[in-house]
From TrEMBL:
<dbReference type="Pfam" id="PF03861">
    <property type="entry name" value="ANTAR"/>
</dbReference>
<dbReference type="InterPro" id="IPR036388">
    <property type="entry name" value="WH-like_DNA-bd_sf"/>
</dbReference>
<feature type="domain" description="ANTAR">
    <location>
        <begin position="134"/>
        <end position="195"/>
    </location>
</feature>
<dbReference type="InterPro" id="IPR005561">
    <property type="entry name" value="ANTAR"/>
</dbReference>
<protein>
    <submittedName>
        <fullName>ANTAR domain-containing protein</fullName>
    </submittedName>
</protein>
<dbReference type="GO" id="GO:0003723">
    <property type="term" value="F:RNA binding"/>
</dbReference>
<dbReference type="InterPro" id="IPR011006">
    <property type="entry name" value="CheY-like_superfamily"/>
</dbReference>
Amino acid sequence: MKQTRFVQNFRGSRALVCAAPGPSVATLTAILPKLALVPEIVPVQPGQQLVLPDARTGDILLLDGDLVLPDGWTSPDGTEVPPPCPVVGLVGSEAPSRLRALAQLGAKSFLPKPVHGGSVYSALFLAVNEFNLTTRMQSMLDELHDRRRKRAHVLRAVVRLVQREGLDGDAAYDRLRREAMRARVSVETYCQSLHAAGDDDEDPSTNDRRRQA
């Protein structure tokens, strides 16, 4: 795994502040521009469940745990989805239920209320970099699961070569790997493409030459 590069500068990022008007919002409105962020106050209705803002990549959400929060992020069709951006929880009450609600929405760091300006950067730094790490790890897991799923196509292609040409398993795999490198794709993706095209009964090198013709 490559060494992690930490984000230290938030220049130009939009900071969505979901909190009831008060001293904490006033402090954030004053401090965030000094950290090169663009604050945007999201209107809230006290006593009513918060409608999460339409956050996008590059945003940072500062979310008040004293609001009535939803259980999680969802897509337009109601499917549960991961948080779209880093989340900082604003904590007035340290009741476990409030902290759990913030954590379920993706909070990776917390600011106690009333917010003090000197603690804002640390909370942003932790939230952004933990979010990036989690996103990167999930991407790696998704890639591993995808490659594992495609392994069935590799096994099928290896067996075909063994049966057709009398190669041993290692030699058959090496041939497929060379053809995949020539096509500049992973061996799993290459073998999947053979199967999808109905070509896995033929010599992979023949298929590759046919595609280039």
